[in-house]
Amino acid sequence: MAEPFVSFISLLLKTQPDYALAHPRQKPFNDTLRQAMRKRITVILQRSRPTPTTDTPRLQRFPSIYTDYLESKLMNSANSEEEYSNPRDLEVRIHYLEKEVKELWYRLRHISDRLSALPDTLITQILLYLPTKDSIKTNFLSKRFKDLWLQVPGLEMHSHELAAIQNFIATFLQINRGSRLQKFKITYNGRDVCHHGSSEFIAGVINRGVQQLDVGSSTLKRPLTNDLVPVNIYKSNTLVSLKLANVGMQNPPEFGVSLPCLKTVHLEDITTKDPLIVEKLISGCPVLEDLTVFRAFDDNVPVLRVISLSLKRFCVKFSRARTIHGKEYAVEVDAPGLKYLNFRDNLSDKVVVKNMSSLFKIDIDTQFSFGISTTITGQMKQAIICDFLKGVSGVRHMIISQPTLEILYAWMNNGAFTKFRNLTRLEASFCTVLLQRLPHFLEGCPKLKHLTLYLLYLKDLEPENLELTVVPQCLLCTLECVEVKEVATVEKAGKKRARYIKKTKVSKHKKKIWIELVRYILENSLVLKKLVLCFSSATNSVLEISEALPTFTIRSPGCEIINHLTSL
Question: The whole model's pTM is what?
């Protein structure tokens, strides 16, 4: 068993990135400190080694390579030369690292024992979900796994690992030079710089017929380079899924974009010199079904135009503060086959949606650039919101945020509200002041069957009493299930500090308002089958509502009332 374990340690050493030693911002460790640390590591290992046995991995039989690994690991995790100057601190850290290595070894051995009975094709598909560095490690588990990682139809790595495992990658690509890659993923983080030749390496992967390509990082605030993504990406006949995050894209070639198999595209904070990059990309994807666009804070695409006959799912997010004053943005969507729309764009001044007859579900969290735009008049804004609502009025399932409801209610007062005649399921976040308008909103949903209310309590905005008098048609004819859920306030959710709500006047007022809401639902819903109440145990709302139930006139005798306690 010692031989594969030695190989395992050797592999760990080879794939160990040199952050502290190689990164230009870090001060290299001097040779004197390195030699002193190495001696201390050797002494600690000799002192802590157990008596050799025949059935355990014997680290004492190969102190040199093991010392090399521990030294590399300790050096790369240190922030200064003095960090491990204390012998006791060093011993504790070494003990921790040994435990970590052994646990990893035994865990991999356990996994290999369970996987050994599976056919190679299934094992390689399982290994496809592991980073390539971990997939390589299975090579030393047993003879059963010897070189099996070379059959895995994909590569996944961090950029800082590229130099360390480039020989393994070269071997992999050489052996699989006639095969297509199913997946390639390379991730960058904040302290990486693009490895020399990264763009060429990605271009080579594309030429090999990769199906799933994932390049970039969601942790960076600025793109890595302006040309990391090679130009041959626009002419791939095999790409099925493309995800790019925080990278720069070269302009499409003059002969256009042709991606005949591409079905899924995820673009996050992409930079480009071509303002029509997204439009050109979509036009070259005849079978595109799923599109996600997270727009950058300095987006160079003033008009995000999405025109597609095949698109079924579209998600757009644009919520960062503007840095270029006076610059206007717009979104135009024309997708007759679209079934799901996730719209989280607070900065676009104009929003146009067309041909939404197939729309089934929409998730809206936007204020329509309210208070941001300086050129859009109130009348123009009203028309934009009204047209947007008409465009999505055929939706069957809606999720809507409190900020969006506030904006819609502001325009409802001016008569600019559209009915959702096909809506059967609604999930909406309300603060109590908005609950006053709940019946008016429900009047626009005559076929509603399932209603979920997320209740927020905003102290400064709450009315003294909740007076609900209007009874919409859906309560009388169609509403079958209502869920009422208490959620944390914006301040509380953001800071994640409070774990309970003090029993103060605020809490009493909150419960009073919510009891009136439950009363309104039960006393006006004629076909209600289920009412689910989820309140915080700290407010005791469930208990007080339960005690108040006998005083309610329940219009639907067969209604089941379910109480749940939850933590905020």
Answer: 0.75
